Amino acid sequence: MKRFYFVLFYISFFSFLSCDESVSNKADFKEDYVLYSIINCDTTFHTAYVSKSYNVDGLDPSVNTIDPTVKNAVVSISYASGNYLFKDTSVERINNTRCSDNLNFYTLNNLDIKSREMHDYQKPITIYASLPNSKTLTGNAFTIPSGDLYFDKYPSLFSAADNPKVSEFGWKFIFSTNLLSNYYFLPSLEIDYSKVANGVSTRRKYAIPYKKIFSGNQELPVFPGVIHAPYISFLNQDIKDAFAELSQGDSDKGSYTIHNLTFKIIIMDKNTASYWSSGRTFEDEFSVRIEAAEVSNINGGYGVFGLYAGRTKKIKVDADYVLPFGYKYEEK
């Protein structure tokens, strides 16, 4: 009986929507503001974007041609008893089919928060955006003590001899072991090599999947996403396949020189990881999706303020592993 009443309500509700033309799928417009800044702890150059919500006729936001960027805001970061002021910046828009104005944002080039010490620790950092209408947006986070992180598990050498079925990688903090659960990780494993074309040697990377899946009768590579665990493994057969695939269709194998394998992790705080996992891109070229409130950590508005840092480990590859593919070998 309950199921009958539910179905009856469902039909009546949508019948009501279809008959009453006054019902709209669009909520009343409310002006909101967005602050977005993801800080790379390994560089002194940082950017921030400030924008506002916009309204359009109908339900298609892509028809908007007005740049919603908020200009003349005072954007700054407070860190370690210092205050760092962003400056207004604009560049020519690559895609001007919707908006012909320059792309406006804020830049900062003197904030150094790179973690260099093994006994490093988290430090508070805050971003502020004071808008021309006196509204203020703020976001709070902590720096990433990547200098305190080390790789405690990795293959020491790839050789032509029998290798185990799996190559395992693991990492941990040396002194701040209790911080591990605060972070998320984006791992990657790549072949570091050079390719000679028209007499010019170019350094390149080739990404290795951590597993493969079948879709129909087609085998597809799967690359790592953001994980919370401090470890990951790769099948050695997939690594071997990647060495063969990087020159697929090219008969000049001798133009390839293998240098090493590079394992890298991007360490993210929860704010950055949440945003990455929710889509990693803007809803459009103008602004962050303000309806994605579940990933917002901005007070006074919407958006994301987060941090990330990278750590890299080079894995040596023996010449006897490389030469059977027809490649050259030079460790760098």
For the structure shown, list the relevant keywords.
mainly beta, 332 residues, globular, 4 helices, 41% strand, 2 domains, 10-stranded mixed sheet
Describe the structure.
With 332 residues, the chain is mostly beta strands. The protein is globular, with a radius of gyration of 25 Å. The protein folds into 2 domains: 33-146 and 270-308; 147-267 and 312-329, no CATH class. The N and C termini lie far apart (73 Å). Strands 1, 2, 5, 6, 10, 12, 13, 17, 19 and 20 form a 10-stranded mixed sheet that branches. It has a 5-stranded antiparallel sheet with strand order 4-3-7-8-18, with no helix packed on it. The chain has helices spanning 2-19, 236-245, 270-278, 319-322, and strands spanning 33-40, 46-52, 74-79, 82-85, 87-91, 103-108, 124-130, 136-142, 149-153, 157-158, 166-173, 184-197, 200-207, 211-215, 218-222, 231-235, 256-268, 298-299, 302-317, 328-329. Residues 1-21 and 280-293 have low confidence and may be disordered. Helices cover 12% and strands 41% of the residues.
Give the helix/strand layout.
Elements: H1 2-19, E1 33-40, E2 46-52, E3 74-79, E4 82-85, E5 87-91, E6 103-108, E7 124-130, E8 136-142, E9 149-153, E10 157-158, E11 166-173, E12 184-197, E13 200-207, E14 211-215, E15 218-222, E16 231-235, H2 236-245, E17 256-268, H3 270-278, E18 298-299, E19 302-317, H4 319-322, E20 328-329
Parallel strand pairs: 1-19, 10-19, 17-20
Antiparallel strand pairs: 1-2, 2-6, 3-4, 3-7, 5-6, 7-8, 8-18, 9-11, 11-16, 12-13, 12-17, 14-15, 17-19
